[in-house]
């Protein structure tokens, strides 16, 4: 599922500019300094070129990494396809990576109605940057998908329609159920215990598929 149709490894980066309380990689939101050696990781991946098709750059938020383009170039040099997981807040970085053929596939998380992200997730103005990333992926014809983790109170029927309309096109939207085992802000679940289940996700899917292919993951 990390790279559709491809067998892949995943490299996680530290640090994120969003603060989604339900984040299931909470240890990667704030940088903690203990980094894997880049050369060691590349050497390890070099031993897997016969078995792996690609490498996924995930996080955290990979586009915050200053030398991400250099790292992607090294992965491409090993013969890997490269997929980027991003929150879409750095459209200029995504554009540069795609235009220089350093990224082959992008998964863009749409957290809520991009017309105005709730402040509990990110600064509201980030929504404009996310929309810019949506539009550039369409314009550059880069293979991509959209992903929305369906979390109350940020995602409801109106938000799903707004997300789907913004992402309109041939690329799919994947709706994901919230994982509650480990989150960035445990108190969030105490305040919002009732979360969308499979039935509600199916209702969301029916709304979204008016605008684009939509699946439940």
Describe this structure in words.
This protein is an alpha/beta fold. The chain has a single domain (8-216), classed as TIM Barrel. It is 32% helix and 17% strand. The protein contains seven helices and seven strands. The protein has helices at 38-46, 68-77, 91-99, 126-139, 157-166, 186-191, 198-208; strands at residues 8-12, 54-58, 81-86, 105-109, 144-150, 173-177, 214-216. A seven-stranded parallel beta sheet has the order 1-2-3-4-5-6-7. Strand 3, helix 3 (91-99) and strand 4 (105-109) form a beta-alpha-beta unit. Helix 3 (91-99) runs parallel beside helix 4 and helix 5 (157-166) packs across helix 7 (198-208). The longest helix is centred in the middle third of the chain and has 14 residues, at 126-139. It is globular and about 45 Å long. The protein starts with 7 loop residues before the first strand and ends with a strand.
Q: Mean pLDDT, as a whole number?
A: 95
Strand order of the largest sheet: 1-2-3-4-5-6-7
Task: Give the helix level as a range of percent.
Answer: 25-40%
Please indicate the count of domains.
1
How many strands? 7
Order of helices and strands: EHEHEHEHEHEHHE
In one word, what is the shape? globular
Total helical elements: 7
Largest sheet: 7 strands, parallel
Radius of gyration: 17 Å
Whole-Å distance between the termini? 9 Å
By CATH, the topology is TIM Barrel
Low-confidence stretches: none
């Amino acid at each position: 599922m990390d790279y559709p149709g491809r067998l892949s490894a995943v490299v996680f980066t530290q640090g994120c500019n969003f603060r989604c309380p339900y984040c299931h990689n909470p240890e990667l939101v704030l940088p903690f300094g203990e980094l894997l050696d880049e050369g060691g990781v590349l050497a390890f991946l070099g031993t897997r070129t016969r078995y792996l098709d690609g490498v996924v750059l995930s996080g955290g938020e990979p586009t915050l990494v200053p030398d991400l383009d250099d790292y992607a170039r090294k992965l491409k040099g090993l013969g890997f396809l490269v997929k980027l997981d991003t929150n879409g807040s750095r459209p200029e970085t995504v554009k540069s990576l795609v235009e220089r053929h350093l990224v082959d596939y992008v998964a863009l998380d749409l957290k809520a109605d991009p017309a105005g992200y709730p402040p509990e997730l990110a600064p509201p103005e980030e929504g404009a940057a996310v929309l810019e990333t949506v539009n550039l992926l369409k314009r550059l014809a880069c293979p991509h998908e959209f992903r929305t983790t369906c979390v109350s109170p940020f995602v409801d029927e109106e938000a799903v329609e707004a997300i789907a309309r913004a992402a309109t096109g041939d690329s799919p939207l994947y709706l994901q159920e919230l994982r509650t085992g480990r989150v960035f802000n445990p108190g969030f679940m105490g305040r919002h215990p009732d979360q969308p289940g499979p039935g509600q996700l199916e209702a969301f899917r029916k709304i979204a598929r008016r605008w684009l292919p939509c699946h439940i993951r």
